[in-house]
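Q: Here's a chain of 387 amino acids. Please give me its 3D structure as tokens.
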Amino acid sequence: MNLIIIPFHDWRKSEAEGFRTRDVHLIRALSKLDSVDRILVINRPTTKLELIYKKLNTKLNGKIILKTNKFNLTHVDSKIYVADYISYDIIGQIKQKQSWFFNKYGNANYINFIKTCITELNIEDNNLLIQNIFSYKCAEQISSKHKLVDAWDNFLKFPVYKNFRQKIEIAYKSLSNSIPLWVTNSNENIIFYKETFGVRNLTLLKNGLNIDFASNNNTPEELQSLKRPIVGYGGKISYLINVDLINYATNHNPELSFVFVGQVLDKQVYDNIIKRDNVYFLGDKHYDVYPSYVNSFDICIVPYNINEGQHGGDSIKAYEYLSTNKKVVGTKGNGLLDLEEYIYLTDDKEIFSNELKTVINEKPRINLKDFSWSSKAERIVNLLSKE
């Protein structure tokens, strides 16, 4: 099977930060299956200004196979090739912001280059996996034997996209009409996509983990001097974070060290977290070293808002936490209820705080193979094969 995949994240970002998101986890897992021959990744369009601003390299790591002034095809891994588009439309990107991607994915020259790449790689017989709602115009113009939409996380609920809701709705509706086969990462999303966009052939495909995640157990130097037990959160500081819960827990557990590892996406949320003496923000870590931080935590937490705050998500960090067999404490939302057998869940800040007073984990251990990205990749291949 040859695959064409349209991920959400820029391949450069994954090279710079580590391959840690659902889309690239699945791409790499698919590339390791014997049943998969070649994978053409259609990369997220960008501009040189964006690359400079984000401190990302212009050139992808690998060997360039095809090259024009705007487009490149790069062989980045044994089975993986990346079609790349660096646009000169800097002003358009600045003015249009996120909606710029709807137009650039539909750019006729980019689509023609993609078709040239398909011919060059001899993958006219292919299946397509779309993981990026902004790329629907591109996905609908590619000729593929079978197509599958990975509609992870409901983008209509992300605050950052509130000004583009109508365009996102159009994209979802268009895909529901043109591509009948969908997967998503939460039961909440299944209900939403069926009721809102009439999607019928919809399968639950939860997130997963690398089964060797827990093998990186060297304690980072930053943690060696901290008082234990260490309560750790590995993830983005965003609107999902329950600030009141964190502030309550850090205040009522002064004997614990609270460590946060990850990017700060929402400065207001970060500012509202009280910086007590037992609170440590260590910033983002490359995914190659990130597991060593999680493996050094004594308790792992998922302190999320629920109800209006959740977006039909399914936390990858929860699966990674669970692979370490450490105690995991979370709130009842964003897919965690499906893991209630393995995680201590509560929405009460006092109960949440009290659960942190002991590191003893009396929950059963997950079967790593059942939750592996490899098993998720095999399900994708099976779904495409049955179409």
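Q: Can you summarize the key feature?
A: The chain has a mean pLDDT of 94.
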